[in-house]
Amino acid sequence: MVEHLVPPRQFMQASLDNYRPDPDFPSQAEAVAAVGEFASGAAPKRGGLFSRKKSDDSRPGIYLDGGFGVGKTHLLASLWHRARGRKYFGTFIEYTALVGALGYSDTVKALKGASLICIDEFELDDPGDTRLMARLLGELVASGTRIAATSNTPPNALGEGRFAAQDFLREIDALAGQFNTVRVDGVDYRHRENSGHAVTVPGEEVAERLARIEGETTLDDFAAVLGLLGRVHPSRYVKVVDNVAAIGLLDVQAFTSQTDALRFVAFVDRLYDAQVQIVASGTPLDEVFPADMLAGGYRKKYLRAVSRLIALTSGQRE
Ligand SMILES: Nc1ncnc2c1ncn2[C@@H]1O[C@H](COP(=O)(O)OP(=O)(O)OP(=O)(O)O)[C@@H](O)[C@H]1O
Ligand SMILES: [Mg+2]
Questions:
Q1: Are 147 and 60 spatial neighbours (Cβ–Cβ below 8 Å)?
Q2: What per-residue confidence (pLDDT) applies to 126?
């Protein structure tokens, strides 16, 4: 199972060299530098007169904290590519699924001895999972493994401006001192290139457009997909889209149920990881989360899903 722990396809070429720091947000260039230093395994600095202010880069952990689309996963994958030795890359959910499948002690055995473990989208939603992961990471760090993680969007994070580093450090408790947190500000990179809307096509064109896409494609009514997502556990969504190049969604409608909306968000994350294109008719997918949901506690999750939906439908832009 652990051999699947590599960056998603779209990040296979990600490097610190092809990350383009936004000059309007200096923290991006700083993040590149910090990741580069971490990658080189920087030995503890002496702290000469002119370098005393340098951050403590000898810590075995680095945590990239930022809003959506600022390139956290890109930077994490860059780090993974640079690392030598046995190394793993997965989302928080993938690691918890691994523990679920192998059990705790076999997971420790499988991961022990790795030089680097990258955890994308560290979740703080479930205290049990957070404790489990903190314990796992604690054992691995103690045996010499270095850890890199990125933030996910905590459910109570109202507004895009709120960062999760404090929550992360508090939740991982004893491990907190091992992490250097690096904040990455900025605007959604995907919007630098895509205009801000998800593309819709007329219902009668969906099948035809899918036929032009190479690889396996599927076509369903949006309502039927929501039904399916309700019957399958979110940890299995990844199987649902396994090997699919594109999905067709007919007659997309705005959500009226928060439960459906959150399931769809989890599904979109899996589509995005696998870079599954979306061909959709009906309501534009960036308008499916109604204002009352966007104003609520899951705002950041919804906005990130919108950003990802815009990217995944952009192949249909004329
Ligand atoms: N500064 C950048 N230079 C070059 N490519 C970038 C930059 N920032 C992001 N990207 C690209 O934009 C896309 C989105 O970035 P990425 O997925 O790394 O962001 P993220 O912060 O992890 O977002 P999310 O919150 O959705 O997980 C990726 O394809 C990534 O390679
Ligand atoms: Mg990401």
A1: yes
A2: 81
